[in-house]
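Hey everyone, long-time lurker, first post.

I ran two proteins through the pipeline my lab uses and got sequence/structure pairs for each. Pasting them in order. The first:
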Amino acid sequence: MRTTRYLGLALGLTVAAGVADAQDRGTIRQLGPVVAKSTEPITNNVTIRPLASGVLVNDAMKRRVIFFDPALSRFTMVADTTPETGNAYPNRMPGSLIGFKGDSSLFFDAQSLSMLVIDPAGKIARVMSLPSSQDAMAMGLQGASYDGRGNIIYRAAPFPTGGMRFGQGGPMHLPEFPDSVPLLRINMATRVRDTLAWVRVQKIKMEMTPTANGGMSMTSQINPLPIVDEFAVLPDGSVALVRGKDYHVDFVNADGTKVSAAKIPFDWQRLTDEDKVALIDSVKAARERMLAANPPVTLGGAGGPQVSLGGAGGGGGGPMINIQIGPGGPGGTPGGARPTPPQMVFVPPSELPDYKPPFFAGASRVDTEGNLWIRTIPTKAIPGGPVYDVINRKGELVERVQIPVNSTIAGFGPNGAVYMTVREGDNTFLQKASVR
């Protein structure tokens, strides 16, 4: 019973802990019926671009962009790493997909410093250069959005300061990563860049250990309950900043004015020291199962450092980052063999917050009406699937919506369509539902 109880905590359920400032958050309604589901499996970490003519899917784990018809019954390949599509998908790092003018889309390729313009029929129309080569990684991996006014909005990469250095007769000092980064806006025509706001991100802490072949392995500590901010670009071109510390929304309007909304009602759940220890133990087990089913994405080429990104999940937190450097081949392994996956390293329990945060990174989506949908971390056991807070343009909680079990909202399409990924056994599929 004890193990089951704390595994529930790791998956976002409740423990017998005190609840501070419990508030009325309203009733929960069910999402509308599922009307279509793909027969082609995809992976969990996809981004989509819903269109009237179908839906584009960036399946980064499989290194492909595919275009489903409206019924999700057929698909065509837009970009992958095979000669048939001109090797349009980067083979060393994931790309990212965002909406662009009208029903066109942009696919960011940080590896080649370019953007593919994909037309409404799912065809590559032309290639553009990235507006900022120095921010290629941030646009490609951190997430970006087009504001409809000629600007791309994105978070800066959390670059470390100090760098690695050796102490005088002492250990190596690892770089320090920031806990907040600027939210940037760059004009695609003029290349002028400015800062809209600052957002809180998960602070990365690295540990270094020697490898068996004489190289070095640097692994990030996993924090299963980081307090972070989310951002989203709304249909009117404004930017919503969802603050994780006290759960409210700051708006940066298209004309530059800023408005801070009131706090959103939330049942803040306190975590005891015992809860924190048990949570880390349970999340570790959940992540081990997840990594066994979804191997880490590997970046880097032969002869250089190899970077592995293990997916987030099983209690939240960012991906596990591992960098292996040494002689012999990729990642320092003889003959170019892949290195042995590193052991997961977690932050000390004392570094977890005293109250469970309202959401994890990547929890926000925007519907076609400009409402924010925030996948919340439950503070009490609720039968069924995940629950989303729906927040309007004034920053007010207007309703709570529950979606099917093992599903995650990926985006919203025309005519009240909601697209979700659904996990069924070892496979994940794309499904389409009605918002009501």
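...and the second, right after it:
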Amino acid sequence: MAWVIGQFEAILDKVVALPVLMPIVDSIGGLTKSQTLTLAIRGLAVGQMTLSNRRWLGDKKFRLGFLTGTVCSTVVALVTHLRSDKLTIMATIAVAMLFNLVAAAFSSILNPSVLHMAGIDPTLSREVMLTAITDIIGFFSFNSLAPVFLL
């Protein structure tokens, strides 16, 4: 994660609000990941998540992640706007959160499914692997979008 953040040192130095807002994008993705992952692993354990319905579940989680991401990013963007009064920072955090929530929801279904199909207990790497995915996507999307919206 430090390497990803380090790639954006120039923009982080120019816009002081960005390092303050990065943990918000990251933590919202982490919460989505944990909730979806718990449901996916439970579904695998009790046999409710099967090969035939994984695509349907993935599509459903993608749509749900998009909807949740839209709502959460709008709320956080409005609060950010109250604190910052810059529409560009508001847009940056909103779009980055949307990307991160969709990625968190989708990868939380995909990861345990792939591990389960490979005969590996999905609980063994659930937090480590998915935390890395959501952190990298969150930090990368937020810091990549910042120059687009802010410069």
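Reply from user beta_strand_b:
Welcome! Quick read of the second one: The radius of gyration is 17 Å. Residues 42 and 48 are 8 Å apart (CA to CA).
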